[in-house]
Each structure stands twice: as structure tokens, then as C-alpha cells.
Automatic annotation (TrEMBL):
Keywords: Repeat. It comes from the Archaea. The keyword Repeat applies. GO terms for molecular function: catalytic activity. This is Prenyltransferase alpha-alpha toroid domain-containing protein. Residues 14-79, 133-284 form the Prenyltransferase alpha-alpha toroid domain. SUPFAM superfamilies: Terpenoid cyclases/Protein prenyltransferases. Coiled coil: none annotated. Pfam families: Prenyltrans.
Length: 288
């Protein structure tokens, strides 16, 4: 048993979590969050790899999963999905293969030509990816594979990200937790030092709730902003005010099948939610 799984297993049902993941792996090396469907896809496979990596577990038949991800990179593939493939391959110790596949990114994303994701396609958060979201994923993937942007590329990306600066955070009409983290991560990864944002602490819910919200002083909490707020606090070297309450919030999100949903209300499990829940527990556990 991975040491991380043992630590996180103090808070959740680890056995059902592992069953949830294992039962959704298919013969082609890919994963699908609905076990009865043979509809394996990049998103679920990426998060399955991330879950194994976080928990310190070997992914079964790694070469099959590498092959599945490699074949997923096609000219029509959305840039966020391509970025997931590159990072996933790097985590599977296939960094050289990922670098070979990285050129296709520049057909859709080229900061020197002011192309911040042509044909954005699917999104993690908003139905259709925003250019800032695409930028975050590309920068994260290139960091994973060891690709270094040129000085001009970095400056072009920085100028683009700063267009989303909104008060104490980043967003389109108002700052949001997701976009604030994505912007700060991008800037810091490129070597810039943006000022600290109080946005994450302003979205923290203690008391009866736990978790974080997308915008300050609102309800209810959801898993996505809780994940990005935890990442944001970590990025800024800050601690949550009530980690035990956040652990309580995450524990309530585990469904009987072992996976996690996004809110305290009823909802289905998926791999994205499950990885984010585990990542939040991993962060909060440091402060208990």
C-alpha cells in the first residue's frame, strides 16, 4: 500500500476508492468513470494516472496506458486534452514520447502569433475552454515534459494573462477562484512574481460548512473551487484557517462506490472529482 494512500485512508474508505479506480480500467489501457461503458477517454485516463501518482501506486500495465494516450493525440484533439496527454505521459515516465508529440500544440496555441488556443474545444470547468484555461494547461504540461518557453513567448503569455487581472484576483467580469489560481500558477511557472492574492482566503468557509467557493462571501462550497483554493494557498505558501473542517467537507463527498462527487448534494462520482478530493486531503492533512 502506498504511504500516501495509508495517510489519506485515515479519512476516507480507501478500499472502495481503489475498487472504484480498478473497476474502471479497460483492456485498451484507458479509463472510463462509468464502469459499464467501454468509452475510455483522455480526461478519465489522465486523472487515473494522476490518482496513482498522488497515492504512490504503480499504474497497471503502464505500457498500455502510454499507448492509449499516445494514440489520443490527433490534429482534431482539443488543446486541453493534448496538454493532459503530455503531462500524463511524463508521469508515466514517457517524457521523450511526450516531447515528440508537443509540436502539435503550436498548431493550436502559439503566443508569438497571439494564438491562445485555436478551436478551443472541451473544457475542464466551463463547457468550452477559455484561453486562460488553455494557457494554464499548456504551461503545466510543458513544465512536466521539460519544455522551456523562449523569453518572447513568456512575455507574450504574461501580457495575455494580465488581461484577466481583476481587483485582487483574475477573472472575466469578476475574480474567481479557478481563474485566479490558473493565472497565478502560469505567471509563477514562467518565472514571474505576481503579488499575493487574498482571494482564496476570502472564499474559505469554516463554521458549519467547510470547503471554498468560487467567489468571496457566497454559498455553497463546491469541490472545484476547494481544489483550486487549496492549490492557491499552497502556491503562496499559506495555510488554511480550518483544515479539519475542510477534511470533513471532503469526506462527505465520497459516494458508496468509492469515488467522489462535487458537492454536498447528491451527485455522481467521476475521476476528476476523485483526484481533486484526494489532492485537497493531501494538502489539508499537512496542517492537522
Amino acid at each position: 500500500m502506498g504511504s500516501k494512500l495509508y495517510e489519506i485512508g485515515r479519512f476516507i474508505n480507501a478500499d472502495s476508492l481503489i475498487r472504484y479506480i480498478e473497476e474502471r480500467r479497460h483492456e485498451d489501457g484507458g479509463y472510463c468513470f462509468v464502469s459499464v461503458l467501454n468509452d475510455t477517454n483522455v480526461n478519465d485516463t489522465y486523472y487515473a494516472v494522476k490518482i496513482h501518482d498522488l497515492l504512490g501506486l504503480e499504474i497497471p500495465e503502464r505500457e498500455k496506458t502510454i499507448e492509449f494516450l499516445e494514440k489520443a493525440v490527433q490534429p482534431q484533439t482539443a488543446v486541453v486534452a493534448i496538454a493532459m496527454v503530455l503531462e500524463g505521459l511524463a508521469l508515466l515516465e514517457a517524457r521523450d514520447l511526450a516531447r515528440e508529440k508537443s509540436d502539435i500544440v503550436f498548431t493550436k496555441y502559439n503566443p508569438l502569433e497571439d494564438k491562445f488556443a485555436v478551436g478551443l474545444g472541451g473544457s475542464e470547468e466551463f463547457g468550452t475552454a477559455t484561453p486562460l484555461e488553455a494557457t494554464y494547461w499548456v504551461v503545466k504540461a510543458f513544465k512536466a515534459i521539460g519544455y522551456e518557453f523562449s523569453t518572447d513567448e513568456k512575455e507574450s503569455i504574461r501580457a495575455f494573462v494580465m488581461k484577466f487581472r481583476n481587483g485582487n484576483g483574475y477573472g472575466v467580469k469578476s475574480p474567481t477562484t479557478t481563474m485566479t489560481y490558473q493565472a497565478l500558477y502560469t505567471l509563477r511557472t514562467l518565472g514571474y512574481r505576481p503579488p499575493r492574492s487574498p482571494h482564496f482566503e476570502n472564499c474559505e468557509l469554516c463554521g458549519d460548512w467547510g470547503g471554498f467557493t468560487e467567489v468571496p462571501y457566497s454559498l455553497p462550497p463546491y469541490l472545484e473551487p476547494t481544489f483550486y483554493a487549496a492549490r492557491g494557498l499552497e502556491l503562496q505558501g499559506e495555510a488554511p484557517s480550518c483544515p479539519r473542517r475542510h477534511v470533513w467537507f471532503i469526506r462527505q463527498l465520497q459516494n458508496p462506490n468509492g469515488g467522489f462527487r462535487r458537492s454536498l448534494e447528491l451527485g455522481i462520482s467521476n475521476f476528476q472529482n476523485t483526484y481533486r478530493a484526494l489532492a485537497v486531503l493531501d494538502f489539508m492533512e499537512r496542517f492537522l
